[in-house]
Structures are given as structure tokens and as C-alpha cells.
Design a protein that fits this description.
Layout: H1 5-14, H2 18-21, H3 23-37, H4 42-50, H5 53-63, H6 74-89, E1 96-100, H7 107-119, E2 126-132, H8 135-143, E3 145-147, H9 148-151, H10 155-162, E4 163-166, E5 169-172, H11 174-177, E6 180-184, E7 199-203, H12 213-226, E8 227-234, E9 248-250, E10 258-261, H13 277-284, H14 303-315, H15 319-332, H16 337-349, H17 353-366, H18 371-384, H19 387-403
Parallel strand pairs: 1-2, 1-7, 2-6, 7-8
Antiparallel strand pairs: 3-5, 4-5, 8-10, 9-10
């Protein structure tokens, strides 16, 4: 079957499946460039295109889909917040890392940075990388000025905290802009970010559906290299498991298209959440009993084992089961904060924000110096639009950290 030469070039350069945006759309883009360049016909333009990287970029700009806005598909950012909170509570000195690919005009990576700040991470505790093939998109992202429609889902609290308004436009504050590193790169290039450390979370949303089968395989191979073994890949709502399998498996988080690396030689998923060094150490300790269902007449498993079991289930992405097990922890030790804190983070990851807030407030009642519980409560209140309460909780979290000698619980 004869293949349009322009579609073939687009497939080779950026992996575009012309059918995904419409063959007519590609033809219109070509006609626009023929007119803009003054070429006599498409044959003359094709010769120009093949010999000019600059012209190639101009054509690509016309077929790329740059539509984006802040906090698109909010459940993905809820999962990001839960993972970041757990990473902070683990005591790890490693920076929490996130990649936005492709980043379009920057709304997504800036939303990532704002979410991490909301959760309580400092600039020194995380890094956000953002990559796109479009030069214009990167320039717009660095300028960081958006319409009211683009920032609508940020909500009034975040708009007040992270943006400056001028002439009906909203510009991301300089201190937030500095937290995201933008660069150009081609998603279908197998050498993209070669040698870079893998990321805790990779956003690659609403792009796989536009790629040819061959290009998609290359991209998924690259993504499997860029996502940490215990990390998570987030795709768009129209990108099901079949597009990323078998390299990835479902993270089993409701209403979120989240995927974790498949274990070699099996269909099982690697951990999707990192639930904290202290709990993990307790789970591995020789003195810690196994968390198993008690036999009739036998003593029930202790709360430490149940907490470890809930952590393992959360790490495996089975948040509903983890929620059930951590409920048993709370029944066993209703006067201790760790079970309530873990319950709150799990509920937050599931998007059950009322349950999360109830559990986290109980954790703070039992341990007023639980800085991470206070900070995550601040995140939830900010998300709800309660700016004053969010700020009070952030202040309490900051004071709690100071009183704890800088330790993160």
C-alpha cells in the first residue's frame, strides 16, 4: 500500500500515527507549510523538508497536540502526593524525583512542583524534570504565563500561593518556576536521558495514543528504563494497560491510570508505593511475627506485623486491601498514631479525602508533633480551598519538625 511521504517522515521522526489525528489534519499542515514557504507544490516542499531541520520543526509544530491545563486528571496528583508523603516519612536522603514527558507548555510539571510543595517537601527534597520535542512549547513553559481557563483547576488557594495575576493572565511565581528544569528531547529517541537516574514518578499522559505500534514499543522500553523499580508511571485516561504491557502492570489504584514495573519473568507488579523505612525495617526484623490470619483459638497477630502487612499491600498497589488491614491495626492499637497516619495516606492515594482527613486528624490528636500528618492535612485543606486552615497546619508542621530536631516522622 502506498504511504504518504509526509506521514512516513512524521512516523520516523516523532512516531506519529497519522490516523490518530486524522490524515486530513496532516494534509492541512503540509498545505499550510507549502504556502508559508512559497514552494511550487508538495514535491518541492518535500525536498525542502528533507534537507532542513528548521522546516521539520515548523511542520511538527502544526501536528503536535499541546493542549494542557493545571491539575489535569486530579487523581494522578492525589497519588503523587501520597507517594511523596510516604517518601518524606521514610527518612530517605534521596531526592524524590518526577519526570513530565512530554511536558507541553509546562502546566503539568508546574502542577507537580506545586503538589510536592503542598505536601511539605522543600526544594532540596525533590527534583522535577520536564521534556518536550517542541521548541515553542519549551519556550512557553519557561515563560510560564497562562490563561484563566488553564489555571481554573488549580483553585483559589493555589492561585494565591503559586501565581501572580496580571492583565487577566496568570504567571507562575519565580520561586516555583525555578523548581522545574525544562529541556528539549524526543520521546521516541532510545537514547533519551541515557545514563540518568530513574524517577519515582513519570507522567507520560495522552501521548501513547498518538504513536504507531513500532514507536510505542520503543517509548515503553524507554519508560521502563526511566521509572524506578518501585516507581509509578502515569498515563492518560484513554491509554489502557494494553499500551504499556508487558513492561508494566496495573498499580490497582481506582480512577487513576497508574502502572508499575512488572517483575521479571512474571505478571506480578513491583511495588507502587514506598511506605517508610521504619515500617519496612519492622517487617524485615527476625523478631517481627508474620502477619497471617489467626487460626481458631490462636492469639491474633500483633499490630506491628499487621502494620508491616498493610505496608506491603500498599507497596504492591493493593490499596483497598491495605486499607482493610490497617483498620485492624487501629483496632489493635487505637491509642497510637502510626496506624492512623498510614490509613490517612492510603485513603488519600485512593482519593477518599474525607476518610484521609479523619484518620490524619486522629493521628495528630494522638501525636501533636507528627509533622508529616500535619503537612498532609495541610495539603488536603488546601485542595479543599481552605487557605487559612492549610496555612495554620503548615505552621504547626514546621514547628513540629523544629521540636523533633528536624526529624521527619
Amino acid at each position: 500500500m502506498h504511504r504518504d511521504p509526509f506521514e512516513a517522515i512524521l512516523a520516523e521522526r516523532i512516531g506519529l500515527d497519522a490516523a490518530s489525528i486524522g490524515h486530513d489534519e496532516v494534509a492541512r499542515a503540509v498545505r499550510r507549510r507549502v504556502e508559508a514557504t512559497g514552494c511550487e507544490d508538495t514535491a518541492a516542499y518535500l525536498a525542502r523538508l528533507v534537507g532542513s531541520d528548521t522546516e521539520w520543526e515548523e511542520l511538527a509544530e502544526l501536528v503536535l497536540v499541546p493542549e494542557t491545563w493545571f491539575f489535569r486528571e486530579p487523581t494522578a496528583f492525589d497519588l503523587l502526593a501520597a507517594r511523596a508523603a510516604l517518601h518524606a516519612s521514610s527518612g530517605s536522603r534521596r531526592r524524590f524525583s518526577v519526570l513530565s514527558l512530554p511536558c507541553a507548555t509546562g502546566a503539568e510539571p508546574y502542577s507537580v512542583a506545586m503538589t510536592l510543595l503542598d505536601v511539605g517537601l522543600t526544594a532540596a527534597q525533590f527534583r522535577v524534570e520536564a521534556i518536550d520535542v517542541s521548541r515553542r512549547a519549551i519556550e512557553a513553559a519557561r515563560e510560564a504565563t497562562y490563561s484563566a481557563r488553564s489555571v481554573a483547576r488549580a483553585g483559589p488557594v493555589r492561585r494565591q500561593r503559586f501565581f501572580e495575576e496580571a492583565d487577566d493572565l496568570w504567571r507562575v511565581r519565580d520561586d516555583v518556576r525555578r523548581l522545574v528544569r525544562f529541556s528539549r528531547g524526543n520521546l521516541v529517541d532510545p537514547q533519551l536521558l541515557a545514563g540518568a537516574a530513574p524517577f519515582d514518578v513519570v507522567f507520560c499522559r495522552n501521548v501513547l495514543i498518538y504513536l504507531s505500534g513500532e514507536a510505542r514499543l520503543r517509548v515503553v522500553a524507554t519508560l521502563s528504563r526511566l521509572v524506578r523499580p518501585d516507581g509509578v508511571l502515569l498515563t492518560g485516561h484513554a491509554e489502557p494497560l494494553r499500551l504499556v504491557a508487558p513492561a508494566f502492570a496495573s498499580a490497582r489504584v481506582p480512577r487513576t491510570f497508574a502502572w508499575v514495573a512488572s517483575a521479571p519473568g512474571s505478571n506480578q507488579a513491583r511495588p507502587a508505593l514506598h511506605a517508610g523505612r521504619a515500617v519496612r525495617q519492622a517487617a524485615m526484623s527476625p523478631s517481627a511475627p508474620r502477619a497471617e490470619r489467626a487460626l481458631p483459638g490462636a492469639a491474633p497477630p500483633d499490630a506491628a506485623a499487621l502494620l508491616a502487612q498493610a505496608t506491603r499491600l500498599a507497596d504492591a498497589g493493593d490499596l483497598e486491601q491495605a486499607r482493610a488491614v490497617v483498620g485492624r491495626v487501629i483496632l489493635a492499637r487505637p491509642g497510637e498514631a502510626p496506624g492512623y497516619y498510614l490509613a490517612g495516606i492510603i485513603a488519600s492515594g485512593l482519593g477518599r479525602h474525607v476518610d484521609a482527613e479523619v484518620a490524619l486528624r486522629r493521628a495528630v490528636y494522638l501525636d501533636p508533633r507528627h509533622a508529616e500528618a500535619l503537612q498532609h492535612l495541610a495539603f488536603l485543606r488546601a485542595r479543599h480551598g481552605d487557605a487559612a486552615e492549610a496555612e495554620r497546619l503548615r505552621l504547626r508542621a514546621s514547628l513540629a519538625r523544629a521540636r523533633n530536631g528536624g526529624d521527619v516522622r
